[in-house]
């Protein structure tokens, strides 16, 4: 019902524009101009202004980047769509100095967006009182922060924005791509979540706990927030509900929350949410153009679409306890490796050898192999966005299932070592007894480590 009302309002505005001569200016011809402007810290950056030919006194918008270096063609496509709608758009070079997976400064990036806004407001093509911000994905955290700091921002548009923290969003995205591939069990429930929690706890996940809700509550400008219904990186349904709840608590009424059909995270067409078809999703560019050109009427009252369906809801991440911190994990892992390696190396001393060797050798081999394989698997998961994991058996990838079988073999071997301990140690030398204790400690440590990382969970 709200979507229908919004469409009727937009049609009425367009009809009024035709009757009164108000310049909606859905321009087919536009031009680009390269500019340089100074950022808040005194450094300079370059940008490109996309403008309808001959434009004066038009609305303007500054494009705020998603994660990465901000050099994708997608920003040009969006800027062109705004220009075709008679809106002057600025896309600028993103600050990449000091921008890494483990460090980025949303506050500094927000200041850069405001510097771009100031530069665009001084252009002759635009009306300085009608210049706003557009933010994609990570820009959905940065652009609202910029808007909350300056009344010079006339409006805010987001696409694929989050109402949760970056760490929580990334965990949901990991779980989503596993689920879409048919993976289930401990590989999803433990490994995907604990990997993010460890990075965040170790300070290696940039802005991991950034909370967007207080910022949303401070935004007084009109807001158009859009989510593709096939978004697989941002939880589209939960984020829409989060925006709506934040605005409702703040008493805000000038917002429009849209679920865009058949669109992925960045507003491009998609078949499954993971691929990107050329161009922008049907109606996406037109929606933004009509909304901006129709302000303040298009944001006169709240308008909220039906939230997109999700495979699973967002789950908050628990903070890392001391016993599972990166330091504790590394200490345990190093201790296991040293213990098992020490057992193996001290076997060169004839008098220290144990009479019952095969369970011990099996324990050493399987534990070391399990550790190496799990570290490689975890690194692959955290460093790629793969959506295909090869053949599955019982909802597990073959490499993960193999690692679980190896871990079970290690547990069985440890059980045999303990069960035969009295027989093994009967008449053994002090060196042999010491090696046996080191072996048991290393095996026990491996079991604890394997439980935490899901190797011994269903």
Specify the helix fraction band. 40-55%
Element-level helix/strand string: HEEEHEHEHEHHHEHEHEHHEEHHH
| Biggest sheet: strand arrangement | 1-2-4-3-5-6-7-8-9
Number of helices: 14
Radius of gyration: 28 Å
Mean pLDDT: 91
Strand content: 5-15%
**pLDDT under 50 segments (min length 5)?**
1-27
Number of domains: 2
N-to-C span: 45 Å
CATH level 1 class label of the largest domain: Alpha Beta
**CATH-derived topology of the largest domain:** Rossmann fold
Tell me the CATH architecture of the largest domain: 3-Layer(aba) Sandwich
Describe the structure.
Strand 1 and strand 2 form a beta hairpin. Helix content is 47%, strand content 14%. The chain is built from 14 helices and 11 strands. It has 458 residues and is of the alpha/beta class. It is elongated and about 95 Å long. The N terminus is likely disordered. The strands form 2 sheets. It has a 9-stranded mixed beta sheet with strand order 1-2-4-3-5-6-7-8-9, sandwiched between helices. Strands 10-11 form a two-stranded antiparallel ribbon. The chain has 2 domains: 259 residues, Rossmann fold (3-Layer(aba) Sandwich); 131 residues, no CATH class. The relative contact order is 0.11. The longest helix has 26 residues.
Write the layout of secondary structure elements.
Elements: H1 2-20, E1 30-38, E2 44-52, E3 58-64, H2 74-84, E4 88-92, H3 106-121, E5 126-136, H4 139-149, E6 156-159, H5 166-180, H6 186-201, H7 213-217, E7 223-228, H8 236-250, E8 255-260, H9 284-293, E9 303-304, H10 326-345, H11 358-383, E10 392-393, E11 396-397, H12 398-419, H13 421-425, H14 430-452
Parallel strand pairs: 3-4, 3-5, 5-6, 6-7, 7-8, 8-9
Antiparallel strand pairs: 1-2, 2-4, 10-11
